[in-house]
Design goal:
Blueprint (H helix, E strand, L loop, with lengths): L2 H41 L4 E5 L2 H14 L11 E3 L4 H10 L7 H7 L5 E5 L6 H12 L3 E7 L11 E5 L4 H25 L14
Parallel strand pairs: 1-2, 1-3, 3-4, 4-5
The chain binds D-altro-hept-2-ulose 7-phosphate and zinc ion (ZN).
The site of zinc ion has 3 residues, from helix 6.
Pathway: Carbohydrate biosynthesis; D-glycero-D-manno-heptose 7-phosphate biosynthesis; D-glycero-alpha-D-manno-heptose 7-phosphate and D-glycero-beta-D-manno-heptose 7-phosphate from sedoheptulose 7-phosphate: step 1/1
Cofactor: Zn(2+)
Function: Catalyzes the isomerization of sedoheptulose 7-phosphate in D-glycero-D-manno-heptose 7-phosphate.
Length: 207
């Protein structure tokens, strides 16, 4: 390995670690709030919808799968859907309408008031994610933006926003991975370990 390659590796590791530490130091309460909103929705019979492009599409599928299968503990499967997986719906909507509507039409079809929609975009500028959040908001879903940079246009359509303060897509995605895992772990905590912590919020208007 050359010195240059070593530096590329150690710089990436260091910058990612600093960003991760900064984000969680500044946003622990917001992460807990989003997890609580997800747990409250699930308790009330709701479900969790995820969408995003590229690496964020992979994140959407990853997080939905943790909920549907299991995370760190044995517990019943939880209802979650990634809106990135149905190639027939995605291609039909993209072909007949526009790429900007590939997620929002699925939100119209599958989303119900009280469900949680998590839109994932490192730039906050993906039109299809923002349109899904806008439609979700309009239809009574609890909308969450998992973003980056300064938050971008997604902020206009989100009840909750978890914004990683960096514009480098890969680094932001790595923190999104940690956020997604924490959300899954905290949902399990609220639903199966410490349901008393949800009680003060049960029946209250979300968000
Ligand atoms: O994974 C990566 C880059 O690390 C790419 O696939 C990346 O997700 C794509 O370029 C996305 O289209 C970026 O969209 P967004 O995060 O700005 O919403
Ligand atoms: Zn990536």
């Amino acid at each position: 390995m050359t010195e240059r390659v070593h530096k590329i590796i150690t710089d990436h590791a260091h910058e990612g670690a600093v960003l991760r530490k900064t984000f969680f130091a500044d946003n622990a309460a917001q992460v807990a709030e989003v997890a609580r909103a997800m747990a409250l929705s699930l308790t009330a019979g709701g479900k969790i919808l995820f969408c995003g492009n590229g690496g964020s599409a992979a994140d959407a599928q990853h997080f939905a799968a943790e909920l549907v299968n299991r995370f760190m503990m044995e517990r019943p499967p939880l209802p979650a859907i990634a809106l990135t997986t149905d190639t027939s719906a995605l291609t039909a909507i993209g072909n007949d309408y526009s790429f900007d509507r590939i997620f929002s039409k699925q939100v119209q079809a599958l989303g119900r008031p009280g469900d949680v929609l998590i839109g994932i975009s490192t730039s906050g500028r993906s039109a299809n994610v923002n349109e899904a959040l806008r439609v979700g908001l309009e239809n009574g879903l609890v909308t969450v933006g998992l973003g980056g940079g300064g938050g971008g246009a997604m902020l206009a359509h989100c009840h909750h926003a978890l914004i990683v303060p960096d514009t480098r897509t890969p680094l932001v995605q790595e923190i999104h991975g940690a956020i997604g895992h924490l959300l899954c772990g905290l949902v399990d905590y609220y639903l199966f370990e410490a349901v008393a912590e949800l009680e003060p919020f049960l029946g209250s208007e979300q968000p």
